[in-house]
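[stage:ingest] chain + small molecule (NAP)
[stage:ingest] validated
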Amino acid sequence: MKRKIALVGIGKIALDQHVPALAASGHWVLAATVSRAGRVDGVPAYTDFAQMLAQNPDIGTVSLCMPPVPRYDYAHAALMAGRHVMLEKPPGASLAEVYALADLARAKGLSLYATWHSRMALAVAPAKAWLADTTITRAHITWREDVRKWHPGQDWVFAPGGMGVFDPGINALSILTEILPQPVHLRAATLEFPENCATPIAAQLTFSGHVSADFDWRQTGPQTWDIAVETPKGRLDLRMGGNVLEIDGIPQAGENSIMGEYPALYARMADLVQKAQSDVDLAPMIHVADAMTLGQRKGVDAFYL
Ligand code: NAP
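[stage:predict] done
[stage:export] tokens:
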């Protein structure tokens, strides 16, 4: 039997991915939305979250799709009201607030899922399996995209808590922390802040274990979401944001899951609720927080979306 779920924050990612994934899901039925302006045809729409929770005791799960800064208050209210909670990435605006949510979920016996959609990309599990029994001699992430193309008008990405280029960069870090057989930690970073922005538009990161990353949000033309990993048994390349796997330059095929990233996230959430478990891995966000702590700040030209 399908469980009822409410979607909160009906904007770009909710409409691009969450709504289609839920429509096709065998686990969930979208029973309500909460958003100040956004709505989904045929689904009861609320603008007040407390009212939706109070009037729908049969909706046991909420999925929060708004930007990270406002998300904590909604997650806290949902858990206090006895609802399971699914968080878009990054799971919050700070580490401490997500730890607090995890503690609250545990105390209430509810499921909290801090999702990392890029971990569900087609080639991530095969890459993890290939790397599991080897040593990493070097790894480099190149994550360069055009913020104006992917975040038109979304000023929150350059406001405090918006994370700037780490909003996409944390997707790469979610893959890195999933596939490496041993954890790494950040040792140094350079962060490029436009003079009119509170968050960086580019970052270069150096980790332990000869791992490095280059994030840039000013790349027009072809977009790059690659992770290259060198090992004694050969070179692994993840391309297209974790969706294409190459070993020594040869594309690999045949081992991929057929499920897309968001359908896989909702299947995982159904499993967590069924088993009364949570999944809150903050490793990708710890690297971002460490970059903000250790990073050398460099001023660059003003930037406007
Ligand atoms: P968005 O379109 O700018 O925001 C989503 C919706 O959240 C807005 O339409 C707005 O709906 C609501 N919202 C915005 N500010 C709010 C506030 N202060 N309080 C309450 N609600 C607020 O952002 P998005 O691109 O969908 O991204 C949302 C999250 O998904 C981010 O964490 C992002 O990293 C993640 N994500 C985005 C993408 C992408 O391609 N854009 C991909 C994967 C993950 P109302 O105005 O109707 O309330």
